[in-house]
Specification:
Strand content: under 5%
Shape: elongated
Helix content: over 70%
Largest sheet: none
Radius of gyration: 19 Å
Structural class: mainly alpha
Number of strands: 0
Number of helices: 12
Length: 299
């Protein structure tokens, strides 16, 4: 086997390994609230997240994948070792964070890893401002928009339900939260699922297996399945942190947080903006807690 082909295979395996780790550290955020409110069991919630993450990755185009694959660093300047270096940083840091139950952003790790490895190879000229504009917009989406939208939604629900009994609210939103959790998982796949598809395709181009950057369906399916498997095998540590340690959640709070976060993520995906789904759901949870009272959030 030629040395170039062997290196390409190694890099592709590293991308899939990073996608798997993304599945066990990032994807669980999508169903953390539905587990913490005990609307779904962990096993059912993880299964739903795995399936809908794949569906979201397959059904929403490749705008985010294109931003990651050829909008952050210049593909014509970097090489396969740059991609390998970026994937290794994700594997090391994300595994450590997962062990301690820290909900990290694989999105930021991926972008920072590609940037750092690219800078080491070619200096500042490797960076593409157009893609970085979307990254900076994504920071706003995943923090300010997630928090603000959840405050608006939760406040509106409190006003609409102010004369409704608590037992009725719990009963209705225990059902509605299944839908909002499904929507959140689908939205997560639409953004996070695409990122590693972009890197996988970039590696294929750099390795000479493809002549131009177009994400094939088989790459979308492969990366989606690997991310789903990661969620199924290792999601509980992050679910415990996000779902139980930020604020106490009832089904109506979980519904508001998931709906707000899912809308923010899906909107960003439509415009090809890579954002942190971790930051989006955690700030949304903070938002619904803060509506109750600021001290209700374990800042």
């Amino acid at each position: 086997m030629p040395d170039g082909s062997f290196l390409l295979i190694v890099v592709l395996l590293l991308v899939l390994a990073a996608e798997f780790v993304n599945g066990w550290t990032d994807s669980p955020n999508a169903i953390a609230t539905v587990v913490s409110t005990r609307v779904l069991s962990p096993a059912l919630a993880v299964t739903m997240a795995a399936i809908l993450n794949i569906a979201g990755a397959l059904a929403t185009g490749t705008a985010v994948a294109t931003t990651i694959g050829k909008g952050i660093v210049r593909p014509e300047i970097i090489s396969l070792p740059v991609v390998a270096g970026a994937m290794l940083t994700i594997l090391v840091w994300s595994t450590v964070a997962w062990f301690y139950g820290i909900p990290t952003s694989e999105s930021h790790e991926l972008i920072a890893g590609l940037t750092g490895a690219g800078l080491a190879t070619a200096g500042p000229s490797v960076l593409l401002w157009e893609g970085w504009q979307k990254v900076l917009i994504g920071l706003g989406f995943s923090t300010l928009v997630g928090f603000t939208l959840s405050v608006v939604v939760m406040t509106a629900l409190y006003w609409l339900l102010r004369r409704t009994s608590l037992s009725f609210i719990r009963n209705i939103f225990s059902k509605l939260q299944i839908l909002s959790a499904a929507f959140m998982a689908f939205s997560h796949g639409s953004n996070d699922g695409q990122k590693f598809m972009g890197v996988f395709t970039l590696a294929l181009v750099l390795g000479g297996a493809m002549s131009q950057f177009v994400v094939p369906v088989w790459v979308m399916l492969l990366c989606g399945i690997v991310m789903g498997l990661g969620t199924a095998f290792g999601g509980w540590r992050i679910i415990r942190t996000v779902g139980f340690k930020i604020t106490k959640l009832e089904p109506v709070n979980g519904f508001a947080a998931e709906t707000s976060s899912g809308l923010s993520i899906l909107l960003a995906s439509f415009f090809g903006i890579p954002l942190s789904t971790t930051h989006c759901i955690t700030t949304s949870i903070m938002g619904v807690g803060a509506v109750r009272r600021l001290s209700a959030v374990r800042w």
